[in-house]
Amino acid sequence: MGNLAERLCIFHARYTLFFITRTRSVVELSKKYLLGLFQSEKRNMERMAEVVPDSNDQAYQHFMSKSPWDYRAVLHQIASDVDAAIGDSEDCFLIIDESGHAKKGRKSVGVARQWNGRLGKVDNCQVGVYAALGCGDEVSLINERLYLPQEWVDDPGRCDEAKIPQDERAFRSKAQLALEMVQDARRWELRYRWVGLDGGYGKEGWLLRALDGDGETWLADVHRDQLVYLEDPEPVVPERRGLKGKAPSRLVAQTLPMRVDKWAAEQPELDWKKVVIRESTKGALAVEVLHRRVWLWDGEEPAARFWHLIVRREIGSPREIKYSLSNAPEATTTERLAYQQAQRYWVEQALRNGKSEVGLGGYQLRLWQGWHHHMAMVMLAMLFMFEVRRKHKKDLSLLSCHDIVEVLRVLLPRANVTYEEILRQLEERHRRRQASIDSAYAKQRGQRQKSGP
């Protein structure tokens, strides 16, 4: 792979203009932070400063939380670079997904008791909503939003403490954040062919209709209780039957809807079609699929939407069933829809790589700007890995993000390479821990004195 460390420095140089403000340059700090994301096993700023030469955590903290560089401009450029690499493919997708980041306490911006999909339970965490641009296994994160729960929006003091901008203090659902990022992608003129959404977003009918109205082609997972019409409901306002009371004004469907899981359970085995969705390290990955056109109606629109329903089950695990809707053109084949449905796997893999390899969830930042700055730097690191893997796809087809990080940890210069330096860092860690312990005890004593005997 040549001198990967040198290539990383050349890569960073492409982004230097984004780290020069009117009053100062933080180019060198941005480079050291990027190196720290690769070099440090724990991506908090103290550990990063221990391994990156000539760096310190206080400078990192200022770079993240106070320096005014524009993270949105960085994300825009990242998206453009990914688009330049894969945007001309007919398989290029934009997929929205979310990830929970477990946090202690209540100071970190957006933290609350809420669903953490990675843990599969309600937990104290922050939730980021992410957009990824990709083509098959070539995928990278390009945009983000931090979900701000209602309890934060309703607490101005808490928002002040986290330095949340005034125009960000209105509640927006995750689905609204998802729509914003799709609109960003269009404004940035990215060349994806379709949008993918998981069930948490697919259940929001208004979002699917909004994307449909914006001209987006999408495929969205839905929950098993999703209602569809097997025949056009042809909504009409009923005729008035008598002189008493108000005349009917609401539209009424002429047929009854059905749950998608009930419909799938009633289909004969012969209707399930075997489809190969991708090649994997264990051979061809095949699933069984049901596909038909159905109508969706929200109870208000004058006409129902005529969309695809795709039901997928794992071969050998017939109870593992996924349901999806798509507004793709009517002639779209079952094989094409099944392929598109399966692409969310690669985005889930990208999120896992982001967390395990470059600190997507391993930060210690409490303020609004710090969270967004960190995410932009993580996505910059992910772009580098995306480009390296793409460059070596033919000669190193199994090259992983973990492989790249392992190589960089060997090649990049390290600060803690001597016994004396490691000992000094241990002593500094212990000093800080002891100071934290002393502070906690002092706080408890102060509380007891206030409460009296």
If you compute it from the alpha carbons, what radius of gyration comes out, rounded to the nearest whole angstrom?
A: 26 Å
Would you identify the regions where 5 or more consecutive residues have pLDDT less than 50? none
Strand proportion, as a percent range, falls in 15-25%
Q: What letter string, H or E per element, gives the SSE order?
A: HHHHHEEEEHHHEHHEEEHEEEEHHHHH
Silhouette? globular
Largest sheet: 10 strands, mixed
Q: Approximately how much helix is present in the residues?
A: 40-55%
Give the mean pLDDT: 92
Kindly state the number of beta strands: 12
Output the number of helix runs: 16
Termini gap:
69 Å
SSE class: alpha+beta
How would you sum up this structure in a few lines?
Helix content is 42%, strand content 21%. The protein has 453 residues and is of the alpha+beta class.
Structure description:
With 453 residues, the chain is of the alpha+beta class. It has helices spanning 4-13, 27-39, 45-51, 57-65, 71-86, 150-153, 156-161, 174-187, 199-202, 205-213, 260-265, 334-342, 344-358, 368-391, 401-411, 419-451, and strands at 93-102, 112-116, 121-135, 138-146, 194-197, 218-222, 227-228, 258-259, 273-280, 283-296, 305-314, 317-326. Strands 1, 2, 3, 4, 5, 6, 9, 10, 11 and 12 form a 10-stranded mixed β-sheet that branches. A two-stranded antiparallel sheet has the order 7-8. Helix 2 (27-39) packs across helix 3 (45-51), helix 4 (57-65) packs across helix 14 (368-391) and helix 5 runs parallel beside helix 14. It is globular. The model has no long low-confidence stretch (mean pLDDT 92).
